[in-house]
Amino acid sequence: MITMHPGEYLSEVYLEPLGMTQSDLAKRLQVDKSSVSRVISGKADLSAEMAVRLSNVFDLSAEAWMEMQATHSLMLARKSLEKIVFERAELVAV
User: What is the pTM of this model?
Assistant: First the structure.
């Protein structure tokens, strides 16, 4: 299971091997370079729209891009909440 941010994956698996710059990718995705930069740096989560754009440029489905984002976000949330003890709610049968 991949738990890295989609931007890190994008950089390592696609941009670096292809020798593609963030500007090149921004042109292909038809977005501004700052949008690409924020995702690659991990400063922004991957949006559904960006996932669809990426799926149209690379060989990975939009669903796979979104699953990667969800997995990464859940990992961060679990890590930030791991020391909190929550009180469980239980349904009572009537």
Answer: 0.87
What would the pLDDT profile of 17-57 be if each residue is shown by its tens digit?
999 999 999 999 999 999 999 999 999 999 999 999 999 99
Q: d(Cα 37, Cα 44) in Å, to the nearest integer?
A: 9
Alpha-helix runs per DSSP H in 4-61: 6-9, 16-18, 22-29, 33-41, 48-57
Which run of H or E residues covers position 9?
Answer: helix 6-9
Interatomic CA distance for residues 34 and 83, integer angstroms: 35
d(CA 2, CA 37): 21
Cα distance from N-terminal residue to C-terminal residue, the chain: 41
pLDDT for the residue 83: 92
| Beta-carbon contacts of residue 24 (< 8 Å; ≥ 6 apart) | none
pLDDT at 94: 79
CA-to-CA distance for 16 and 10, rounded, in angstroms? 9
